[in-house]
TrEMBL record:
Pfam families: SMI1_KNR4
Domain Knr4/Smi1-like: 1-121
Protein name stated in the entry: Knr4/Smi1-like domain-containing protein
Top-level taxon of the source organism: Bacteria
SUPFAM superfamilies: SMI1/KNR4-like
């Protein structure tokens, strides 16, 4: 990749390299924890399709490096429909390595949603302990549903920005 991993991300992957189970879709608020191999495959796919992506960078967030998709956005969690919660290992001039970003098929721009992975995991723990989260049967496995105007964990992240 050409970038070093922030300590929190390195620690996460040293403990476990993704879910490793294709049968259970998303163990982190219904988001799939990607293995490093899966993350690199997503980055490669983004780079191969980069010529087809239309990006307006007139109002680029100074915390982010120019270019979308950016190879410095390492996808860590996926909603399996093309949206990712990732860690920025190559931030812009006002950004911080390790900031957590939201990006993908349903988003026109990359959004910084947390200062670091610890803040993201704390948000998830607080969300899970609140009354806003319920489990909805969805076939064989339950789906985490967030009450309110945002009904999925990825959408609930937008409340943080």
């Amino acid at each position: 990749m050409g970038h070093s991993f922030p300590a929190q991300l390195r620690e996460l992957y040293l403990r476990h390299d993704g879910e490793g189970d294709q049968l259970v879709p998303g163990t982190f608020l219904s988001l799939k924890f990607l293995s490093l191999q899966e993350s690199l495959e997503v980055i490669q796919e983004f780079q191969e399709n980069r010529a087809f992506v239309i990006v307006t960078e007139e109002e680029l967030d100074p915390r982010l490096s120019a270019g979308y998709p950016h190879p410095g956005h390492l996808p860590v969690f996926s909603d399996t429909t093309g949206n990712y919660l990732g860690v920025d290992v190559d931030p812009g001039p006002l950004g911080k390595a390790g900031q957590v970003v939201l990006f993908g098929a349903d988003f026109d721009d990359v959004q910084v949603v947390f200062d670091d992975l610890a803040a993201c995991l704390l948000w998830a723990a607080e969300l899970l302990s609140s009354e806003r989260v319920t489990l909805k049967p969805d076939g064989r496995w339950p789906d985490v549903v967030v009450a309110g105007p945002r009904v999925h964990a990825v959408e609930a992240l937008l409340d943080t920005v």
